[in-house]
Amino acid sequence: MEENMDESQSQKGCKECCERCVGSLPWASLIATILLYLGVALFCGCGHEALSGTVTILQNYFEVIRAPGDVLDVFTIIDILKYIIYGLAAGFFVFGVLLLVEGFFTTGAIRDLYGEFKITACGRCLTAFLMVLAYLFFLVWLGVTAFTSLPVFMYYNVWSMCKNATSVEGANLCLDLRQFGAVTISEERKVCMGSEKFLNMCDSNELDLTFHLFVCALAGAGAAVIAMVHFLMALAANWGYLKDASRMQKYEDIKSKEEQELHDIHSTRSKERLNAYT
Q1: CA–CA separation, 94 vs 100, rounded Å?
Q2: What angle do CA 33, 39, 41 make, to 5 degrees?
Q3: Which stretches are transmembrane (predicted)?
Q4: pLDDT digits (tens, 9 = 90+) for 83-95
Q5: In angstroms, how far is CA 257 from the centroid of its own chain?
Q6: Distance between CA atoms of 245 and 200, rounded to whole angstroms?
Q7: Contact 174, 192 (CB under 8 A)
Q8: Which residues partner with 176 through β-bridges?
């Protein structure tokens, strides 16, 4: 009988511990962090490979050559975009960790461990700082999403021309890189429908793969935007909680101070009465 009671108490204690741990997790920040990491990973990975595929298409089918020296050509711009992708991947990994730590520091378990006052004092400053950063990065990802939609639109046009090449026989349609700003006006780098280069480009895997990689990169940027909105909502909720906790802390301090003063007054009067009686 005693063994059964001990087992039931241990199971109950384990259940309460698990419920407390699960309840103490910052689920909003955790879900937003996972979404942010997935979006950034999808954008950076697919964007990097899509840029590499663009370089292959320019070199093999449009015969664009990298300019010697430090001339700012399309290949240099692509290299700069790759470095930006590296920076985004590293920067938002750290930013996601900071937001997740902030979420943990506003949960009940951490407050019980370090005390309400320390979490309120430090958490408000951290939450306000992260709210400003999250809003700025939200605007950044909106711009990144809009910028990523441009190559998706251009590759969709090229992909549509390849798919409809058989139905528009006799049409003299050409892809001129000067229209996209990839080369200077003096250079003529174009591929026309019906030419061998155009057919080879349409039959190759580079065009289809690069187009779908840019679509995945656009989806990753959109996921990052949603994650930043989710973070803003979580940070705003944490800010409201910490603000109320700060007011409650001040109220508790004033209340305890008044109770201590009343206790001191009562003690003083009791001593005076005792001295008068003696």
Answers
A1: 10
A2: 100
A3: 21-43, 83-105, 126-150, 211-241
A4: 999 999 999 999 8
A5: 45
A6: 67
A7: yes
A8: 190
CB 116 within 8 A of CB 245: yes
For the chain, domain boundaries: 27-246
Chain segment 192-238, per-residue pLDDT in tens:
887 888 888 888 888 999 999 999 999 999 999 999 999 888 888 77
Q: What amino acid occupies position 242?
A: L
Q: Is the CB of residue 44 less than 8 Å from the CB of residue 88?
A: yes
Contacts of 271 (CB under 8 A, 6+ apart): none
Considering only CA atoms, which of 81, 45, 100, 78 is closest in space to residue 230?
Answer: 100
